[in-house]
Amino acid sequence: MSTKAASPLSSNPPQPNNLAADLKPQGNEGAPKVKPCCVCKDEKSARDECMLFSNASDPQDACKDLVGKYRSCMASYGFNMA
């Protein structure tokens, strides 16, 4: 019989269900916060499109409903926009 040392990788293969278990935060205090660039994308693009391509004499007034929707969406994620 030969005594060949087993490779550390072959003796204990990683389990796909727990690869990052030690890296995940426990509870709500470690929950990742969302970035403002990653939320309300549809509302933001509709607002921007309206502001950029509006034929109105006052695009800010013409698009205020879309601006309001974007602000309320951002507020729902905890971002306060003045």
TrEMBL record:
GO terms for molecular function: copper chaperone activity; copper ion binding. Cu cation binds at residues 37-38. Residues 1-10 have a biased composition (Low complexity). Pfam families: COX17. GO terms for cellular component: mitochondrial intermembrane space. Keywords: Chaperone, Copper, Disulfide bond, Metal-binding, Mitochondrion. One of its GO terms (biological process) is mitochondrial respiratory chain complex IV assembly. The keyword Chaperone applies. Belongs to the COX17 family. This is Cytochrome c oxidase copper chaperone. It comes from Saxophila tyrrhenica.
